[in-house]
Design goal:
Layout lengths: L2 E10 L12 E7 L13 E8 L5 E5 L13 H11 L5 E5 L1 H12 L1
Length: about 110
């Protein structure tokens, strides 16, 4: 997988409810050349958002080790892998840009 998978601490995904009715932190996919340890924190810049039908949205981000600045900068092969993998359980409705992702984060932080 070309991304590290984690969450934005303190930011809840208000549209996602699991079977036990709890709300989870907002997930983040981080493009990085670094291999992270479980639980390791990272500074990232938001790239966009994957909006899924089930409400389990994914923020897409990158760190300073990875040379991308937009969704289009990611190779077609990696984009397909991510969309297939994270869209398997629930289809991805849309791919939003940085501004849409930041607006969703702001809304979820309240």
């Amino acid at each position: 997988m070309p991304v590290a998978y984690g969450y934005l601490e303190g930011i809840f995904n208000l549209e996602e409810k699991e079977e036990n009715s709890h709300i989870d932190f907002l997930d983040v996919l981080v493009f990085s050349s670094k291999e992270f340890l479980v639980g390791e924190e990272a500074s990232v810049e938001v790239l966009g958002i994957l909006t899924r039908e089930d409400g389990d949205h994914k923020i897409v981000a990158f760190d300073k080790t990875y040379p991308v600045r937009s969704w289009e900068d990611i190779s077609e092969e990696d984009r397909k892998l991510i969309l297939d993998y994270f869209g398997y359980k629930s289809p991805i409705k849309s791919i939003g840009n940085k501004e849409e992702a930041e607006a969703y984060i702001k809304k979820s932080a309240k």
